[in-house]
Q: What sequence folds into this?
């Protein structure tokens, strides 16, 4: 497997930027040197299987976890020492929100609205009603899905410049999920917010993301525009006698019972496929997003 990205200096004006971020828990690697920039106004879908390292990367990017190696910047500031001004521009929704659980949603909104100059009270009222969320029950007594949606309302109401959602769809039913992703795309489009959301659901990416990043076993294997993936990656089939010619840096390789080999390959800068694609009997097949992820995650 090869890391596709080649980056040098951190992008100082990027809302989020990490270089060489590595982390381990109890000696087990969770992140193995990740480089990633989020350009302003982008909606980045971070996809990966369970345990790929998505939450760890998000927490390191926001300075909520000190990585063993590497550097994370938020709006150009070191993530571990963010100014209050930078913090006020960020909204983060963790996978399982727990903060302020002894308050009702109304009490939490009243409290938080004082800290955010752009707090959108009308959005809160409208969305709490539309999502049929209880406003006067303490949040500890809400279902995980309700609790997560209240937290999403909280995050969106602050009208952040940077919105980070860790598996926002995990506890949502399909209607709420579609609603949320529409809202996220709208925010980025109209307000110019930058969004990062993690998921393991490919259709969520297709609905909302402008860019995708694929994390596998703590490594970023791919980062590109959503529409670009179909053009840029394909499955190369090589018949049994030709499999030795497979490019060494393919994103995945599967040997089949008949001795043939399939690998996921990337176009070169000049648009060409690897040389092996021109061998007799070789075939290049287009890959949908779902197939691409299944191929490289296996
Ligand atoms: N606090 C922790 N202590 C020990 N190991 C941890 C801890 N948090 C995460 N891990 C391990 O680190 C790896 C990456 O976990 P992480 O939660 O970042 O993955 P993820 O991609 O967000 O997974 P999921 O999609 O299941 O939420 C996993 O193997 C996980 O078991």
A:
């Amino acid at each position: 497997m090869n890391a596709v990205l080649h980056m040098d200096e951190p992008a100082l004006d990027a809302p989020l930027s990490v270089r060489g971020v590595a982390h381990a828990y109890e000696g087990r690697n969770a992140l193995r040197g990740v480089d990633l920039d989020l350009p302003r106004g982008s909606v980045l879908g971070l996809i990966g299987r369970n345990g790929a390292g998505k939450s760890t990367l998000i927490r390191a990017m926001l300075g909520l976890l000190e990585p063993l190696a590497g550097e994370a910047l938020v709006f150009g500031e070191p993530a571990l020492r963010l100014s209050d001004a930078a913090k006020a521009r960020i909204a983060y929704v963790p996978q399982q929100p727990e903060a302020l659980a002894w308050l009702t949603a109304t009490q939490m909104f009243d409290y938080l609205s004082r800290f955010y100059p752009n707090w959108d009270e009308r959005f809160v009222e409208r969305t709490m009603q539309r999502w049929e969320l209880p406003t006067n029950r303490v949040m500890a007594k809400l279902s995980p899905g309700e609790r997560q949606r209240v937290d999403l309302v909280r995050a969106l109401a602050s009208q952040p410049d940077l919105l980070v959602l860790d598996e926002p769809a995990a506890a949502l039913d399909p209607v709420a999920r579609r609603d949320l992703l529409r809202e996220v795309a709208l925010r980025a489009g109209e307000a110019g917010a930058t969004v990062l959301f993690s998921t393991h659901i490919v259709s969520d990416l297709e609905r909302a993301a402008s860019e995708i990043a694929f994390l596998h076993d703590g490594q970023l294997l791919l980062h590109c525009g959503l529409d670009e993936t179909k053009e840029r990656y394909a499955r190369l089939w090589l018949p049994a006698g030709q499999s030795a010619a497979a490019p060494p840096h393919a994103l995945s390789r599967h040997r089949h019972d008949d001795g043939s080999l399939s690998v996921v390959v990337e176009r070169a800068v000049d648009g060409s496929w690897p040389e092996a694609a021109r061998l007799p009997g070789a075939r290049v097949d287009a890959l949908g997003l779902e197939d691409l992820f299944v191929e490289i995650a296996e």
About this structure: Confidence is low (pLDDT under 50) at residues 1-6.
